[in-house]
Amino acid sequence: MMYNGKYKKQFVEMSAIGSGGFGTVFKVKDRLDDKIYAIKRMEFDFKDISDQQKLRRIEEVKNLVKLNSQYVVKCYYSWLECNYLYIQMEYCSQSLKSVLKDKHIVFGRQPDEAMKVFEYFISCEIFKEILECVHYLHTSCPQVIHRDLKPDNILIKHNIKFNRFIKLCDFGLATEHMPTSSVTSSGNPVSQSHSPDTGTFQYIAPEVHKRRYNTKADIYSMGVIAQHIFDLFDIDGPTKKYRLTTFSVKFNRLYKNNIQSMVNFAANERPNCIDVLQDYNNWSVGKHFKNCDIIPTNMGNIITKLHVFRDLDNCVNVLFKTSDDMVYVFGDNSNGCLGLRHNNPILSPELIPQLCQQNIQYFVNGCDFVLAVNDLNVVHGFGNNYWGQLGPVFGSFRIDTPFNLKIDLPKPGIISYLNDTTVAQITCGYNHVLALTSKGRVYAWGPNRYGQIGCGYTLTWRFPLTKHELNFNIYNIQTVYCYYRSSFAITTDGLVFSWGDNSGHHLGHNISDDNFSDNNYKQQFIEISTISSGGFGTVFQVKHRLDDKIYAVKRVQFGGKYHYFILMKTKNIEF
């Protein structure tokens, strides 16, 4: 739902991120600065909204403004509009909930199997950063009890300045806690009266069902979260499956000395965040990571970027960058996707010299190739290039040339064709690529058997095609996306282009076939007008004779005949 106020005028609504009892959060793009934000919309001035509920919504805004730090999602602005309260916040693409859902799959293990040391290291770092966030709340003045700590409300976004990833969000149930000089006989702070039964049932501390509690209520929630992070819901005993690991002593220290204490039913027996953090060296492998069998003994630096993906054979591959700007890879390496010019499994991290000291910002991948983008928007590519998915810089052999794996697998190199452009976004399908520049130009390359490149031919394109050749020149493209053998583009006006494989009807054309002969075209469509034309064909606005919907159809000529391809519905789509 959108209104003719500030929200609609200033923001392009892209998608709904999540919703709950307190409102809905949307991913939006600011029309002025082109940046992505998260906006939370909550009912405010409705008859069924009580004064207490209004107060809670206002308190959430006040808490976000007051807790302006690296540990809490940033609040930029809030306003009332059409009976709704809007809160504009920084956008974080992932939550702990989404990470935990697939963590065991990413690291190639079954849920009942013990973690390998590398996954344990990552889990320890996540837990440590969450502890630091909650410690910040509990040491604020006045103290803040979050009261709804759970994986959904723990967001992940890399903060380059502080080299952190974890932030807390959703302070709709948070409350201030005024510490007093009074303590119990055991030296613990005295609890105060707060609202009972506040939070999500699975994570609520026992004492919250009553009225008197303090910051230790959040510690209980943290203990339950830790059980999820470290997979401690084993009916045979959490420590049993870790007995034979190289870090069993560390794990036992974490579980027995910290997590068990955090979920103690007696609040006064729980530790504070700082107590668990001070024990970090005893339960984490971080300080001794260089001595673990998975990491080279000459490494020992902090991991600052991590990219994990499944390759052509559905096996796991890992790339990571360290604090000294060195890039390492390990994994199955199917079809040589990790850039070492062979296709043998890599059992321990190996250095990629061409990517070191390049300040790589992020990685994207297809089924058996990887692209790495640095801070200057220079795109490096490596892996299999049989279908031209790495662009023209990596060779010009024809698709019917006999393929020699040892010769044709390139070492990582720069896709020089993009050097004079500023790459705003790059995305990979199964083995094709779309790149969007800051000026709204779209480049595409790779195999085109299913029309996923968008030029209308079924050839493989190693030389990137620009958006002008794709007949997008009259539109302002704001984002692109590849899926398997299909491609999508969204304009600033809300138009959605889709092309490529439509065998699963996922292009949204409401038509099973996207490739028409001249006779079929005239039977199914009424031609309304010409939208654009160029060297690769002409695009028409048409009306379907059966469903009365408007489409854009591209006509290209090859083999002495005209062929027609559905590109999109020419209709504004609101996200």
TrEMBL record:
Residues 11-284 form the Protein kinase domain. It holds the Pfam family Pkinase. ATP binds at K40. GO terms for molecular function: ATP binding; protein kinase activity. It comes from the Eukaryota. Gene3D superfamilies: Phosphorylase Kinase, domain 1 (3.30.200.20), Regulator of chromosome condensation 1/beta-lactamase-inhibitor protein II (2.130.10.30), Transferase(Phosphotransferase) domain 1 (1.10.510.10). GO terms for cellular component: cytoplasm; nucleus. Keywords: ATP-binding, Kinase, Nucleotide-binding, Transferase. RCC repeats lie at residues 377-439, 440-493. Belongs to the protein kinase superfamily. Ser/Thr protein kinase family. GCN2 subfamily. This is Protein kinase domain-containing protein. It comes from Medioppia subpectinata.
